[in-house]
From TrEMBL:
<keyword id="KW-0472">Membrane</keyword>
<dbReference type="InterPro" id="IPR033355">
    <property type="entry name" value="TMEM88"/>
</dbReference>
<keyword id="KW-1133">Transmembrane helix</keyword>
<feature type="transmembrane region" description="Helical">
    <location>
        <begin position="74"/>
        <end position="95"/>
    </location>
</feature>
<protein>
    <submittedName>
        <fullName>TMM88 protein</fullName>
    </submittedName>
</protein>
<keyword id="KW-0812">Transmembrane</keyword>
<dbReference type="GO" id="GO:0005886">
    <property type="term" value="C:plasma membrane"/>
</dbReference>
<dbReference type="GO" id="GO:0030165">
    <property type="term" value="F:PDZ domain binding"/>
</dbReference>
<comment type="similarity">
    <text>Belongs to the TMEM88 family.</text>
</comment>
<feature type="transmembrane region" description="Helical">
    <location>
        <begin position="21"/>
        <end position="49"/>
    </location>
</feature>
C-alpha cells in the first residue's frame, strides 16, 4: 500500500540519512585502511622529495649527511614502485573487512519510503544494520 505524501517524504529523508551514514562509515573505513597500508610509501616518497635539491632541499641533518640527490631520487622511485602492490593489498583488506562486517547490506532501497510494510532487510540475514540474524556464511556476493 502506498504511503501518503508527507509520510513518504519523511521516510525518504530517514532512508537517505541512513544510507549517507553507511556511506560515510564505508568511506572512513577505507580511508583508515589505505592510510595505514600506504604509510611506508608515503614516508619514503616524502623523504625523497624533502631531501632532493630540485624539489624542497631541506636543511635537515639527515639530508646533508645521508641523502644526496641520487639517493633521494632512488627513494622517490622506490616509493612509487611499492605503491602499486600496497594499493592492491589495501583494497583486498578493505573488501574483506566490508564483506565480513556486511556493510553493503546496510544500504536500504528507497522503495521502503514509498510503500508500507516493506522489510528493512532485503535478505534474511546480513550485517550490523540489524539484519545479521541467521545469515548463511556460504552465500557469495556474486551469486
Amino acid at each position: 500500500e502506498p504511503r501518503g505524501a508527507w509520510c513518504c517524504l519523511a521516510w525518504t529523508l530517514v532512508i537517505g540519512a541512513m544510507n549517507s551514514l553507511v556511506f560515510l562509515v564505508n568511506l572512513l573505513l577505507m580511508f583508515v585502511i589505505f592510510t595505514v597500508v600506504l604509510l611506508p610509501t608515503i614516508v619514503v616518497v616524502y623523504f625523497g622529495f624533502q631531501c632532493h635539491s630540485q624539489v624542497l632541499h631541506s636543511s635537515a641533518r639527515y639530508c646533508k649527511s645521508i641523502l644526496d640527490d641520487n639517493s633521494s631520487s632512488a627513494l622517490i622511485i622506490l616509493g612509487f614502485v611499492i605503491m602499486s602492490p600496497l594499493i592492491v593489498v589495501a583494497m583486498a583488506i578493505y573488501c574483506s573487512l566490508a564483506r565480513r562486517l556486511r556493510l553493503f547490506m546496510c544500504f536500504q532501497p528507497y522503495s521502503l519510503a514509498v510503500y508500507k510494510g516493506g522489510k528493512w532487510c532485503r535478505y534474511e540475514g546480513g550485517g550490523p544494520c540489524g539484519c545479521a540474524r541467521g545469515w548463511n556464511t556460504q552465500v557469495k556476493a556474486w551469486v
